[in-house]
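Holo prediction. Input below; ligand is zinc ion.
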Amino acid sequence: MELGKTLVRVRITGQKVARKVGVVKKTKIADLLKQLGLNRETVVVKLNGKIVTEDERLSDGDSVEILPIVTGG
Amino acid sequence: MLKCDFCGRHAVYNRRYAGVFLCDRCIIKSVERRFRRAMGKYKLVSPGERVAVAVSGGKDSVTCMHLLADHCERKNCELIAVTVDEGIKGYRDRSMSIVRENAKLLDIEHFAVSFRKTFGATLDQIAMLAKRKKTGLNPCTYCGVMRRSLLNQAARELGVDKLSTAHNLDDEVQAIMLNYVRADFSRLYRLGPGYPSREGFVPRIKPLREIPEKEVAVYALLKGIKVHLGVCPYAGGIHTEIRDFLNQLETNHPNSKFMILRMFDRMKPHLARSVPEFELCECKICGEPTSSGMCKSCELLREFGLGLKRKTIISGKSR
Ligand SMILES: [Zn+2]
Ligand SMILES: [Zn+2]
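Structure of the complex:
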């Protein structure tokens, strides 16, 4: 692994597989969302099972669940 | 872990437009307070009234039903729920059972009305016809017009005083922008927390109008409300582009959505004298109120040889 990088497990609700994503150490969830092309207004994020704000920072081995909330209809 | 600015507990939501972090308890309280404030400020429901809530099964409408159920109990109002089954395979069929489950939990009478029974075709069939006939209209246009008409008919037949929809802040601001982009003055003018009664139209209320979509979602999750999170297969087009644009704007410039809403609400009284007065008459086909001889719904359906099949649209009810 690159120096200063950290690996987090990311699962988007509704998608079957989780993936490992490499981010810079202490990255905010908001930046992870940007990296994934997601807008923070359209998701609710759980960090290690708890609903959190996108301003929390990630550490190695964290598990992130992203719940898309914009469904229309 | 970040802390709630009000009580110091673990924060679950950053209300960026106000610059505050909120915990589970404080966001729940705040959403409920805003709901009550809208009900009071705009006098959306009076004690003793009979109210119908349109429920699709999505987070907004199910949450709205829960909030209204509590409110109606306090204010001695009667609440019933109505679901429009547009006939979207794999989408509406799944959400319908979620509505039923919630209605049962809250002990609310639930009615279902359908495009197929009323208009003679499902939205899936209409979407196919529109494509084949190259009408240039997307399914959302048909769906919006038909749903509006059907909900009004159902509300009238059910004898309710108010019809509540679950439009949140995001929906309302999207509608404002869409009507700007389309230069649709009369539709723009009609937007607001409540739509005043006119002959034949059941007054509409939007108690979630000042609650951002994300706050509704967080509230529903925290309260453990069971909702359908499926995405409508017809979503797309200009609606989606405007939504994405507004979300980008809000992310980069928090409070933009509220500013657009507040500005519109300030301008609205000044627009009144520019809105042409028009007489309402009954649609010669379905009897719904319209300003011309035929309502928009019948006009759209005539192209396919479809239309209102029956005068009475509510058949069985489920409880
Ligand atoms: Zn708190
Ligand atoms: Zn008609």
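Residues B 4, 6-7, 9, 22-23, 25-26 surround zinc ion (ligand 1) (CB under 6 Å). That is the main takeaway for now.
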